Amino acid sequence: MNIHGIILAGGAGTRFWPLSRQARPKQLIPLLNGRTTLEVTAERLQPLIPLPNLMVITNRQQAKDVAGNLRDYLEPEQIIAEPCGRNTAPAIALAAELLREKAGEEAVMMVFPADHFIGELESFHRHLLRAAECAADGSLVTLGIKPNRPETGYGYIQGGAPLPNSETIPEISACRVARFVEKPDYRTAAAYLMDGGYFWNSGIFIWQVGSILREIAALTPDLDLALQEFRKTRLQQGLEKALEIFYDRVVPISIDVAIIEKSNRVTVIPATFPWSDLGSWDALDELNLAPFSAPPRVINCEATDNTVFSNKLTALVEVENLLVIESDDALLICRKGSSQQVREIVAELQRQGLEEFL
After folding, report:
1. pTM exceeding 0.85
2. Which of 96, 172, 300, 315 is at 20 to 30 A from 269, Cα to Cα?
3. What is the DSSP string of 279-307?
């Protein structure tokens, strides 16, 4: 199949402070045992998606570092730098328009966040191939993650009518989407877990280029008009000018809100491979991953169940259940289970005008 991959690599760099910063967000720090999630994302798509068929959407502030991180994988022209962030719908619409010109409307477009962890790559690839089969019938496909806890930080997808089994990949099921649910409260999330028919929204999407462009035209006409103007401006004045005008015109909106939650053509494929969105230091700890290739040097004196991410010798005395994270200019210490509140630290730094730590 004519398969192309789009890697979304923006981000503000708040969840993994103090290592991540505005100019160096999560996907550009070596969270996966010394390697960046961006590099690992590009690598895991091989050999399913040839390297020339990859495109990265990032922003101008991070473009140089993205290019450097992927220098062994991509050519500079495969990296598109947004003038400013406008969320995922404009970025995906732009990528679809560029792919339409390059590969045609029947090309399969797979969209991936740059900052996730995925295990069991053979299974992952088979899920993507099953999704490509569904996309060939005009579906907009998302991979759904089976919940293992009542998580309130994710959107949920309720599975509907099952699709016929695939002859080539019979072990991977697919079904129409009955409905989307915004981030629920704890009691509702627990009910979804018990129900068994709900899935977390992974943020991984698969469709044909023509399918997503037709849904954009039908469901978000303003974005479609901006794409038409982009097409004309690019022919007349070049890519950079076209990008400036496009991003000045579009409004920030996610692909979920703009298209996925409105379309009646959405299919979900329940994923069985290990997955994490690496949303916090706690997630990294739970997966037994580390941001440095060498293990930290730690001395424990009656200290238990602590995790240290530091290049310095660290001594812990009579403390437990802590995360200790050190960068060159800052130190974070928090209880395990509380690392989602790191964003509050970043907000406080902004309030105090401590820009050098952002």
Report:
1. yes
2. 96
3. -SHHHHHHTT--SSSSPP-EEEES-BS-E
Q: Are 171 and 186 in contact (CB under 8 A)?
A: no
Cβ pair 45, 103 in contact under 8 A: no
Q: Which helix (H) or strand (E) holds 314?
A: strand 314-317
Domains of the chain: 3-279 (3.90.550.10), 293-357 (no CATH)
- Tracing tokens 């730590």 back to the chain, one arrives at 357
CB atoms inside a 10 Å sphere around CB 81: 17
Q: Which two tokens stand for residue 246?
A: 């496009």
Kindly report, residue by residue over 229-250, the tens digit of the pLDDT.
999 999 999 999 999 999 999 9
Confidence grade of residue 310 (pLDDT, cut at 50, 70, 90):
very high
Please state, in angstroms and rounded to a whole number, the distance separating the CA atoms of residues 259 and 297: 48
* b/e sequence 119-154, b meaning 16+ C-beta within 10 Å: eeeebbbbbbbbbbbbbeeebbbbbbbebeebbeeb
CA distance 54 to 67: 13
Helix %, strand %, coil % for the chain, to 5?
35, 25, 40
CA-based nearest residue to 247, from 114, 105, 98, 89: 89
Ranges of beta strands (E only) in 190-297 are: 198-208, 266-271, 275-276
